[in-house]
Every structure is written in C-alpha cells, then in structure tokens.
Amino acid sequence: MRYHGLALGILSWAALLAAPVEAAQRLKITLSNQEWPPYMGQELPYDGILSRLVKEAFARGGVDVSFRYYPNNRTLQSARNGQVDGSFGWAPTEERKRDLLYTLPVLSARMVFYQRKSHRLDWSRWADLKGARVGVTVGNYYSDDFDAQAKNGTLAVDSAPDDLVNLRKLLAGRIDLFPIDLEVGRYLIAHHFPPVQGTQLEAQNRSFWSAPLHVVIWRKHARGKELVERFNRGLKVLQDSGDFERLLQETREACLQPRGYSP
C-alpha cells in the first residue's frame, strides 16, 4: 500500500509538471470557411456541422481554431496561397495535393436521390432508372458515373438554376428524382418548405456517390505536418470517446430547428 501511494504521488507530480509544458505547446491557427449549410455557415449554430467537428478535433490535439469566411470561389485558394493556415471540407485531387497537406477525412458528403414518398423509385443499377426524369442544378458535379449515364441517355436530365428550384419541381411532380447531398437536402427542406410540403419528400436510403471531406493545411506551413498529426490524433480521441457522434447529432438537430421557412 505504501508503494502504491508513492507511485500515485509520483504520477501526480508528473501531471502537475507536464501541465504547463502542454499549455505552452498549444497552437493557434486560422482556417478559411464558407457558406455551405448545414456543414458550414456563419449564421449556423456552431458555424455548422463540419465546422464544429473540425474545431473540436483540433482542440483535442492542442490547437485552437478561428475561422475566416470567404466567398466560395476563394475559400480553397486562400489556403493554397498561404493567406490562412488551412481550410476544410475538401476532397483530395492530385492538383490540390501540390499545395496542400491532407488530414484523415472528417465526414463524407453523401450524394443521394430525393423523391416523393408517393412515387418511390427503387433501383440497384443505373439501367433501372431508364426513363426517370432527374433534375440537375447547373454547375453542380454529381460524379463521373452520373455524368456518363446522363450522356448515354439512361438518365433523362432536366436542368434548373439552383437546388431549391429542383426541390420545388420534385414536389410538383415535374421531375421524379433530384440528386443532392443528404445533409444539404435535409437543411433546404427544413428551412424553405412548410412541414405539410416537406414531409412529402424523402431521401433514398442508398447513396450513389460519396466524397470524403478533409482538413487541408498549406503545404509550405512551417508546422504543417505537425498540424496534420495533431488533428488526426484529436479526431481519434473525439471518435473513441463517443463525442464525435454526439456532437454530430446535436449540431445537425440545432441546424435543422425551424426558424420559419423562406419560400
């Protein structure tokens, strides 16, 4: 028992001595952010689902994060040229990797088809959707597979200027399916449709494309590799503790809270 008490005493002193060292090593960085609700957004609770998870994972790795908001077309570029320490919400490409270091993925964007509950379309291969009218938003990318099916005529695509117009077309029966990220679709329906209309739409259970969403750090950053390592370590702590799923669900629900819809 005396030995056990001595060991505890030594451990306690070690913890006290380590505390100021750990505090001194805490880093502060700035990440570029953008408007992509419910993942990211200046007016969203906690700056959005992805923003909160990134900030919490970094915090557990000893890094404090602040956000600087940019227009969509400048968000990634600000990280690539070193205006900020990094950014997040990006899938890897060979071109981007020339300027950026990638962490482990935080979440994956899941592209699904939304449909009317009264007109469900089950499918297991693209050919099953032959003849279905599929809405697309001009300028959006839906995967190479989707583009190939649209090009060969399997999918009869119908273009619209934005996602909201497509969801309204779906509700009105002018299209049969609309592809959109699962979380984004939920958010738009919750905030732009009255419940009596929103409940008529649903996401299919299967996704046809998934894109990993990473944190990226400027490759020339003096502590770039260390920041990646700290984030990856913090992300694992967040996941292993169960806090990741808790915060994900909590923030999703906060972002979906009705504040009155805007038609």
UniProtKB/TrEMBL annotation:
Residues 26-254 form the Solute-binding protein family 3/N-terminal domain. Residues 1-23 form the signal peptide. Coiled coil: none annotated. It comes from the Bacteria. Keywords: Signal. InterPro entries: Solute-binding_3/MltF_N. The keyword Lipid metabolism does not apply. This is Solute-binding protein family 3/N-terminal domain-containing protein. It comes from Chromobacterium violaceum (strain ATCC 12472 / DSM 30191 / JCM 1249 / CCUG 213 / NBRC 12614 / NCIMB 9131 / NCTC 9757 / MK). The lineage of its organism: Bacteria, Pseudomonadati, Pseudomonadota, Betaproteobacteria, Neisseriales.
